[in-house]
Amino acid sequence: MIKKSLIDLLFKGFSIVRWNDKLRPIDLIQIDKHSHKMMIAYCFAKYEEEAGKEFVWNDIIKGGIYELIRRNVISDIQSPVFKEISKNKALVKKLNFMIYKEVEGKFSNDEIKEEFYRYMTEDDYIHPYSQRILDAAHIYSTYYEFLIVRHANPEGYKIDHIHKELVNEVEKYSDLVGIQNILNKQKIKNFVELTGELRYQVRWGHLPRIPNTSVLGHTMLVACLSYFLTKAIPNVADKRIYNNFWGGIFHDLPEVVTRDIIKPVKRSVPGMQEEIKRIEEMLADQEIFPQIEAQWIDEMKFFTRDEFAAKIHNGEIVEQDEINQKYNSNEFNPYDGTLLKVADDFAAFLEARNSIDYGIRSKELEEAASGITRKYANKIIAGVPVYKLFDEYNEK
User: Fold this and answer.
1) Residue 262 has pLDDT above 60, yes or no
2) pTM
3) Are 241 and 368 within one domain?
4) Quick one: 171 and 222 in the same domain?
5) Is residue 44 a contact partner of residue 176, using CB atoms and an 8 Å limit?
6) 211-243: string of b/e by CB count within 10 Å (b at 16+)?
7) 55 with 133: CB under 8 angstroms?
């Protein structure tokens, strides 16, 4: 099962503030940036796939997760300094190996440990075109953050210089269809901006917590947890890895137009939850899906509707056990929605539990943490003993 030490390292991304040497209207948070980067990478990859370019989808997933872990370890090194260090290849190799050694003991799954080792030590482990897509998404998500900083600080020191530098970096990827479409102000630019706004929505907004977590960062945490849980399934089909990760990234996408409505409100009146779901779907049809390419919409609906149900192709809902028994093959397009629900609930548990551990507690947070723990007591889902996620947190 996933060790607490690895989960804590992922969760650290909520406490790392980016652009912390600049005036900014809101704190720009590490894990939020990486979530937005992966949403952008999905769009770029879709365009490149349609253009017939060869790359590996699962390498994009691995690169996104392991780069977040790497950046969380070296969070004290600011980007300009790291950029200079990166020019010294021998030094970078030593730094990467040091990072691996620091994280090595946090992995309980040998396959994931091997993946991370190779990511940190082999230059060509990630398919080169997958890496190019990730690099383009990285620089554009950074540029998106910078525009927020610049708006608050238009005459600030080196603002013009940083702007020119970032524009030059973005233009290096102008061979990618996604970058071309954004620069030409095609509708995908609206989608990228819309998804970026999920960073403004604070989860548990009615309760004081430390650290605050946004809907945007939450989706990346859920996607990472979903990946690790999925990799615990023996001989798991690649399509399950793909669906379970991107389902995690996009499962809260409708909240960009409805906001994060807390569960007590959804459950306050009979029928309220169903009505909110109907409104979410209507607004997604009106405001979100028109901003992506028509041929992507069915898959985006697959990720955002009945997102916590076990499904196969065409959104057909099946029993979770059937995925392992009958549909563990790419041809069925299997999606472990119940496992994604575990990741979503566990992320909520972590948000409550970390605040409690920091000393910011309330009756609602304590009830949420204990309630989620009870919900998964002795539960095995998709063959994964998910109850073990909570073991280290409940040790006295």
Assistant:
1) no
2) 0.95
3) yes
4) no
5) yes
6) bbbbbbbbbbbbbbbbbbbbbbbeebbebbbbb
7) yes
